[in-house]
Write a structure and sequence with these properties.
- By secondary structure, this protein is an alpha/beta fold.
- Helix content is 23%, strand content 25%.
- The protein has a 7-stranded mixed beta sheet with strand order 6-5-4-3-2-1-14.
- Helix 4 crosses helix 6.
- The longest helix has 19 residues.
- It starts with a strand and ends with a strand.
């Protein structure tokens, strides 16, 4: 299993001199199996750079798994240039939106309108297929198996466990660990806490024993104080998840758009010093860097 980060920034692309090291593109992760099956997790702006690498290799088959349809995770889809070339097979996977009742095809249908883009979906040249996923139900993509788990975010959000070649990873997409909205002295506190505990246990089981755990780590503890409920995690919550899941390697990602390379370097140094005895390795996800498991 080869994993390459194509976009690690959260919310909005941040090109410029202050993001050259870690990258300014929004979320996209490329996974290659031993027989070169192509799995792509999310289609933020980072997918465009991946497309440039694929163009000389056409025709291709790509399996694109969307965690959720917030803009920074789908904005790159219309710019994934293999969709304009005949002979390619592009499979897009995602959940059923409980509000609209529509599947992942909606993310293309909405974007490919003349109001937002100069080309209609009907004009695409590739063979494009959509697949609606169910929580906990494993699907295969080439030689890889992918299992979605619903994770807490203000919209339906799937975390994906990917297994192939005897290795595994879990990617959270955007995720804020659930918490009890009631105070201990309120009558509904205990019942709600049981739901929170059950959900956290389900998530830990979905992540269990992965080689790589890639987690939304948007905020520091101090930043989180004013952003609780926005649907994103912290460095601390990511470390807790990695310990509970017995992960071998933890990647912090979805870097805050205002965070510079120098600030990420300082945070990473601090995290390494504070967690030098952790039973897992930690890394800041960095655009263009490939890992082999």
């Amino acid at each position: 299993m080869k994993v390459t980060f194509r976009g690690v920034r959260g919310s909005i692309p941040t090109p410029g001199p202050s993001t050259l090291k870690y990258g300014g593109n929004t979320t996209c992760i490329e996974i290659r199996t031993a027989v070169d099956d192509l799995i792509i997790l999310d289609a933020g702006t980072g997918i465009h750079a991946l497309a440039q690498r694929l163009d000389p290799k056409l025709p291709i088959q790509a399996h694109i798994f969307i965690t959720h349809t917030h803009w920074d995770h789908i904005q790159g889809l219309p710019f994934f240039t293999p969709i304009f070339r005949p002979g390619n097979q592009i499979d897009i996977y995602g959940g059923l939106d409980p509000v609209t009742g529509e599947g992942i095809e909606r993310c293309m249908k909405v974007q490919l309108q003349y109001s937002f883009f100069p080309i209609r979906e009907a004009e695409l040249k590739t063979k494009l297929s959509y697949h609606t996923l169910l929580p906990g139900k494993t699907v295969t993509a080439g030689t890889a198996s992918i299992t979605p788990t619903i994770l807490n975010h203000p919209v339906l959000n799937f975390g994906y466990r990917v297994e192939c070649d005897g290795h595994s990873l879990f990617f959270t997409g955007d995720y804020e660990p659930p918490y009890n909205i009631y105070q201990p002295d309120e009558p509904d506190h205990n019942e709600y806490q049981s739901h929170v505990d059950a959900k956290l246990a389900e998530v830990a089981a979905a992540m269990a024993n992965v080689d790589a755990l890639i987690v939304d780590s948007s905020y520091t503890d101090q930043e989180y104080l004013s952003k609780r409920g926005w649907g994103h995690g912290t460095y601390r919550s990511a470390l807790t998840m990695a310990a509970q899941a017995n992960a071998a390697k933890l990647f912090f990602t979805h870097h805050e758009p205002g965070r510079t390379d120098q600030e990420l370097d300082r945070l990473f140094q601090q995290l390494r010093e504070e967690n030098h005895d952790a039973p897992f390795q930690i890394e800041m996800a960095r655009e263009g860097v490939e890992y082999t498991f």
